[in-house]
Amino acid sequence: MNYLIIVLLIGTIILIHEAGHLLAAKLGKLPVKVFSVGFGPRIWGRTRGETEYRLSVIPVGGYVLPDIQEPEDYFNFSIKSRIGFSLGGPLANLTAALVCLFILDVVAVGFRFPTVFLFPFRQLADLTGQIVMVIPSLFQNPDQLSGVVGIVAAGGQQTALDLSKLLIWAALLNINLALLNLLPLMPLDGGKIVMDILPALYPPLRRLHIPLALTGWALIIVLMIYVTIHDVTRLLGFV
User: pTM (2 decimals)?
Assistant: First the structure.
C-alpha cells in the first residue's frame, strides 16, 4: 500500500507540473491541442475551445501538446509567452511544495501568522538551497542517482502512511522536479528557455533547437535506463 501511494504521489506531482504548463500557455495565448491526464491511448476526452482534455490509459502524470503544425511555428509566438510556458511547470511544483510545507506547519504548530507567512517560505528556500548544493555532486557520482523504482522503494519504506512524512516527501519531490527541469539542458524547461533567449540574440542558432532536443531526449532515455538498472540491482542486493 505504501508503494502504491508513492506511485500515485509521483503521478500527481508530474500532473501538477503539466497543469502549470497548461495554465501558463493559456495566460500566454499559446494554443494547446491536447492536455492529457495519463499517457497512452485515449479513454475519454472532451474538447473545450481549442483544447482537448483527455484521460489516457496509463493514469500516471500527463502531458501538454501545443497546437502547432511545424516546430518552427513555435518561434512565431512572443519570447515572453514561450519562456512563461516553460516556467509554468517548475513554478507549479514550487507552489505545490509550498502548500505541502504550509499544511505540515499547520498540523505541527497550528494556524498562526508565522505558520502562514514565514515558515513555509523559509523552509522552501532552505530545502531548495540544500538540493541545489547537492546537484553538482550527482554529476560527479552518478551512482547516487535514483529513478522512479528507487524513489518508490525509498518512499514506501520511509513514509509508512505517516502524513507528516508524506508531506515532506511530496515537498521534496516537487522541488526536485522543478530544479531538474530548470537545468539548462534540452529538452528540459531550462534548456528551452536558453534556446528561446539565444536565437533572439543570434537567429541562426534557431536551427540547433531540434538537434539539441533529439540529442537531449536520447541522453535522458539512456540515463533513465541506467538509473532503473542501478535501482533494481541495488534493491536485489547486487550493489
Answer: 0.87
